């Protein structure tokens, strides 16, 4: 399924270079190399807008995203039209609140909880300051009786050049299912992806086979640019790094940070990273 978002009222386009947009060269036979500008990306499991104590406050989530000053963020545990979250279309609400485009991937699509309401959906979302040219949501391998998971993949227009931003949320209690899901993600993204970032709550730590399946073809921003343990879960007492930013090899992580400004906004802590695209020469 593909979807194009209308442009929001507020626009802020940060230049990215090289495969992600480059300024014109100086002049003459050979142009000078252009200097790439970092791309600021993040992942955040928002727990349907509820705190660890299950107090609903979606604006609190919006304030965290705003404070991270990101160009694009992948969200997990996002509601549309659920009673527990006030029947709000959360990706649309956050997009409007933050002046960002949005795409949503429904991994659950259920009957409404009240007559006359829209169908309730649950899944992942992308919020982007760049235009979203198209998006697809592909369901991942599923063990019967478990929650359906998916890969939401958005193609972004970064100064006229395409970049892929993908977000996922792997099964929480079955490592073999996660391995199959990771293998399917590699099939979808390709064995040598470029201009691609995969983010998400992967419900596993870096040494596990399911994560190694992904890091065999993608980088891992934290060991390359982070400091410390990088723990993201749970937000009140962080003890595990299960939320990941995995850029393709052509994107170099400059920074990686667990964002701890408001640990009570969700039961996960978000992770933010600046990624440097390669230098491209223009003639």
From TrEMBL:
Keyword flag Kinase? no
Q: What is the name listed in the Swiss-Prot or TrEMBL entry for this protein?
A: Endonuclease/exonuclease/phosphatase family protein
Question: Sorted alphabetically, which keywords does the UniProt record give?
Answer: Endonuclease, Hydrolase, Nuclease, Signal
All copies of the Endonuclease/exonuclease/phosphatase domain together span 42-268
Q: Where is the signal peptide?
A: 1-32
- GO MF assignments: endonuclease activity
Q: Which InterPro entries match?
A: Endo/exonu/phosph_ase_sf (IPR036691), Endo/exonuclease/phosphatase (IPR005135), GPI-anchor_lipid_remodeler (IPR051916), TAT_signal (IPR006311)
Bilayer-spanning residue ranges? none
